[in-house]
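Notebook p. 47: complex prediction with adenosine-5'-diphosphate.
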Amino acid sequence: MTDETLDAFLAAVPLPGLVIDASERIVAANSDALALIGQQARGQNFVTIMRQPALLEAIETTLAEGTARTTQYLSNDGAQDTTFRVSCRMVRGLGLGAAGLVVVTFDDITDKEQASQMRRDFVANVSHELRTPLTALMGFIETLRGPARNDPEAGARFLDIMQNEAERMNRLVGDLMSLNRVEGEERVKPTQNIVLNDILNSTLHTLQHLARDADVAFEVEYPESPVSMIADGDQLKQVFTNIIMNAVKYGGSGGKVTVRVTESAREPVLRAPGVRIQIIDYGAGIDPIHLPRLTERFYRADDHRSKELGGTGLGLAIVKHIINRHRGRLRVESELGQGTTFTVILPIQESF
Ligand code: ADP
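Predicted complex, structure tokens below:
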């Protein structure tokens, strides 16, 4: 087999691939491989072209011993770092002398690597979020057993703090379970017939005491006739609870939260019949730099305030997944000092 036939053969391989002979020369390579390791690679010694020690060692071992090896190759495609799983295999009997050739193929595993990095980050975040209240609890238990053993007043105070910390952990675990559930259901179409006004009214009723404590009045603006649609009622209630609760918690200084519903026969964003639910507060607002990342897990625009108010940092991540499941959209507009508007846009008919 000539170098040209090897090239023709490699051109049909759907991965970057190249062939190295016993004299360590790159004798053939397809265009994907050349794009990866350099256009001038053909005919060169592989050691001068691929400078990563793990890959060089794998190729050398396969050349010397004939055993298959796999390793990783790290590169960058101009936009991001990329990772390849590289396989080195010996081929004999192609008529190019007794010595075999080494076929090297590169499998792009960047997505898998990124997914596992995200998983590691998530576990690190969860551990960190749980550790803070846990450390506080352990500290207070020790104090109650030791210095504060005979001080019932301090004991009662510490128990209050311990209850708060335990509740924070409970909320975090609850939100993690919700997030897990809504992520798992994201591809399952909602099938319930619901009346949106009922869901909103029931949400506002549940949050009434929170609003009263924060001196916030709810104001509702509904269309003349109730909005019926197909959705998952419990999940929509969770969406509105999370957003309205945030409006009260973070925007409560405005004294009022408006819930405005508008129905449209052709919602421009969806290009289909839809409904917009706007939750408007008149409080501190959110710096625009935070807006693109607001629905990321554990992202907080104001870390200190969120923790002080018992936030888990997961509320809007849950909201995003539920809205995705309903094939809807979430828009956030805010101006510092003027307040924030969260707009949930949902399709009304089964236009999935
Ligand atoms: P948290 O549990 O921290 O409230 P969320 O995911 O619900 O987490 O919200 C993420 C962050 O977005 C909050 O920490 C807060 O900084 C910010 N935020 C959400 N809603 C508002 C709002 N109405 N006004 C100001 N900031 C808000």
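Notes: The chain has three domains: 3-108, 114-184, 189-352. The radius of gyration is 30 Å.
Next step: compare against the earlier run before touching the bench.
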